[in-house]
Amino acid sequence: MEHHLYDSFPTLMDLLPGPHRKIVENMRQFQNFIRAQFMKQKKELDVTDQRNLIDAFLAKQQEGKPESTEYFHNENLLVLVGNLFAAGMETTSTTLRWGLLMMIKYPEIQKKVHNEIERVIGSAQPQMDHRKQMPYTDAVIHEIQRFGDILPHNLPHAPTKDITFRGYFIPKGTFIFPLIHSILRDKAYFEKPDEFYPEHFLDSKGNFKKNEAFVPFSIGKRSCAGETLAKMELFLFFTTLLQNFTFQPIPGAKLDLTPALGVTNAPKPFEICATSRR
Ligand code: HEM
To answer: Which InterPro entries is this protein grouped with (predicted)?
Structure first.
């Protein structure tokens, strides 16, 4: 409700009390943090030795070309870094939190992941090369992403021209939310769509099985730019956590799988007991 009011009366909302003020204040702090970082890097900048994305952006800014002011201005840098934080951090950490919740809810699945880690990785540091020898863990991670369904509504898209799709006329510029949720829970593709069931991604011999309805990163030209990185992060973090710990719920915990209300579908806060395996 508040964000609708915000869209319609932005100036008025700035003056009214309410929880939206906290969001605005947090946003301001977040942007100040990013701004302070790039101001610091601007002072230290050596265009011949660019250390990261911010340096590369600032170097473009200093080239003195039309695009230096048209595209590479401070406002765009602020939004770019902000988007990378939101797109790259919130998503992966939320998925990992779903993963830990599933592991404490289903200890027998956790046990199988532990066994596979022991068999394939042992006490070595997990590497991406290990994944193809770990079909069960791979299936579990896919199922965490399918079940977690962290961006159920996807991001909004809009057609660049008038189109007719399955008999529906959609004028240019119409907001469209191509729902990821309905695909990830499609009965035609997943045997038990509303259950956490890693076998969705395993064949009868226990080999990893792809499923074309696995689309948590969306599809098409504007699908997630960080998909490969995200998959690596999920595999490496998840296996490292389970290599080192056994996770259990605290006694009497309910382990509710209904997502909390928010921008992404995140699990409700839960407590966890981690016992070292070393
Ligand atoms: C589990 C992790 C992640 C999930 C589930 C996820 C999911 C998505 C989805 C559904 C979209 C919208 C695609 C569309 O509009 O059709 C998206 C866009 C995007 N994601 Fe991710 N993402 C994840 C991690 C990351 C990471 C780690 C990065 C980068 C560091 C990243 C960067 C982006 C960017 C830049 C876009 C916008 C692409 C565009 O509009 O062309 N994402 N992501």
So the answer is: Cyt_P450, Cyt_P450_CS, Cyt_P450_E_grp-I, Cyt_P450_sf, Cytochrome_P450_fam2
